[in-house]
Amino acid sequence: MIPDLSARHKIALPGWLDRLTVRVAQWPWWALAIGFGLVLMFFSFATSNFYRRALDVEVDHFRLTTDQYFDVVYDVKASDGKTQRVSGVLTVQDAKSVTVVTQAESDVNLPFGDIASFNCGEVTDPKTCPLDSTVTLVRASITGALIQEDVGFFLVQTADGEQVKTLTFAIADKPKDQQQPRDELNPHLNKAVLRTPKGCVADTEGSCQVTLTLKPDDANNQITGTLKERDAEQIVVQTQPEQTTVIQRSDILSVINYTPKQCALNNLAACTEGIFLTPFLTIMAFLLALVIGLTLGLMRVSSDLVLFNLSTIYVEVMRGIPLVVILLATNFVIRPFLREQLASSMPALADAVKIAVVLLIIWFVLPRLFRPALIIEVIRTLSLLGGVLLILTALINLFNVNFNLDVLGAGILGLALCYGAFLAELFRAGIQSIGKGQMEAARSLGMTYTQAMRFVILPQAFRVILPPLGNEFIAILKDSSLLTILAIAELTQVGRLFAAATFKTFPVYITIGTLYLCMTLFLSFVVRVIERRSSIAHR
Fold it and tell me: Which residues, in sequence order, are CB contacts of 522 under 8 Å at separation 6+?
């Protein structure tokens, strides 16, 4: 007898283990994996200095509160009647006056071990010098983490977080018996720089600790100021006091500059880069794409062959061109045309619009002159065309005066032009998914085609296309990263610049990806909630 080789011996599992295996297999492992990754990233933000710096750059250095509201430049009337220019940071304002900081306070933290000589009147010991005294000292050394190193300078972050930039010629040379032959690849070879560990290089994580021995006779290493604070390890010397000016609003002759400064919860007008700019770009592009898509979608289901063919040409062309090409064309072709040539072509365009309106009137009115029953429809159409003519004329006159589309507007327009074609197909599919009986029933009740579309067809179509609309919004959010090719300071561009400045690409782009993932996950959740509520409301 030949044995059955296809038979399989099943291993009997205990009942509790079998139930546990089934239950664990049913867990949402995709959500657990994403959540675990996000937890790791937020742990990195909390523990890694560089990840925190990258996150701070991406959120536009956001703070909860600030007193640095605007960078301002005013022309004011001085007490002698002359005009005086005042520039600085606006910190306080009310109905009658503004307070401007014209000179920011500058402090230097000096450990006792970094001081070569100290002069406080007759006192030479920094530990016994009275506070608020004028002091003069010579700095002997700088100790801290080497953040950046170049041919001409060292950037060192001290233990208290202060970043000190030291010029190379202000650093002392090694003793002659320790000097080595000159090396063009290592210009700091013979400078008195002690590195720990030996031979380490600049690192934003602070892994390279250095001690720079300074030249005592160099003016850059001599500090004069006011002794403000002192503890067991260091002193704080104020080298530059804060200076403020109170200006009466009645004395302000003109405002030269008024630019938001510090991004904060009480100064959101200054939050214009990074994670704050990306949602703004997305919302504006999506709203404009909605208008374009709805218009083209209605044209796509129209029985008018001219409207159908024009909309089909636009949709097929825009869907067949890469988004990057559309963005480049919008910025480097359309924007210069609008700025340089549109104004000169406006008179001819105005005449063309008037001729087109006249032809439409003739085309629509003449066949109906001998049908008195349609006189009301004729009057409504003439009124509509007249209103369109007035609006177009006003826009043409406005553009004829001045039209200058900035880079931000060009980026929004490029996204909207591309996604308008995709949304047009969504609207077309949504409208055609509604049964023809709905339109016939609406028309039988006396509704016009426009009324039937507005009150019957489109509300049902919107419910059908709501999930893909949400997906398109998320797609625009992700594709807004392509605006980095136009040097727009959105999330990706800000990260690219920071990565180029620090030569740290992996942490920066991981931070960018994490922020995009958080936004898309939140939007996906919102879309699901809206879809669920919409389906419940229409059961």
Answer: none
